[in-house]
Amino acid sequence: METIVRGLKPLEGRTIVRAVVVDGKLRPSLSGMRLPREIRRVRRRGKYIVFSLDRGFLVFHLRMTGQLVLEGSPADGARAVFVLDEGFLSFRDRRRLATAEYSRELRLELGPEPLKDLSWLPGALKASRRPIKLWLMDQRNIAGIGNIYAAEILFSAGIDPRRPANSLRSGEVRRLMEAIPAVLEAAIAHRGTTFSDYRDASGSPGGFQKLLRVYQRAGEPCPRCGTPIQRVELGGRGTYFCPRCQK
DNA sequence: TAACACCTGTTC
DNA sequence: GAACAGGTGTTA
Prior knowledge:
Number of helices: 5
Strand content: 25-35%
Low-confidence stretches: none
Number of strands: 11
Structural class: alpha+beta
Helix content: 10-25%
Order of helices and strands: HEEEEEEEEEHHHHEE
Distance between the termini: 30 Å
Mean pLDDT: 96
Radius of gyration: 19 Å
């Protein structure tokens, strides 16, 4: 989302003159948005993409397969198209789980950003017995960590994803506090992770998938010790880790 | 806190 | 035909 938002920055100062919803079954709720509206600011909050308009907010969540592509013409297969004073913003989504919503007030119930100060983390972890991976993925605790990066962060920190959050020792918490920004910044440096649908705002795939060390690598040797990467299910999500390096 | 719902597509 | 997929919101 960070990579996409950076690519959408040119929208600041542009005006939405028309919104064409092609797919009625889509889940955008744009009712109440009167046009034209000026886009004042484009930013990310957790995994949400937020447009601050001259009146109200346009909030996107791309879920698994959503795309926001900024081009000179509407993209093929777009489920909705925002016609701008210059250019077109196309909203695509193969699985139709993504959302686009206009609201007068912005209220997102999200924890702190993972790329800012994390000194609050040790205290917060002590308050939960949930498996650390589920804790990291709970957006109310810390915003923006999904299934891929949770796996990579825990590998980097050498922590078993099933461990209760409050069981981490201080050295492990310290490693976690280093791993969170390290993994996310590396992923941003490579412009995101593409398996099938992820594209940035100009339609380009990311490159971080080549650098994943455990995610979707069940049975392959751990890059650190050679032990086969294991897949278990945690909270209904595929969870990849090295049983030897992650204790 | 777990299961399921929302959707569709790909791969085994 | 079954399993799996970058996520979250609701229900039991």
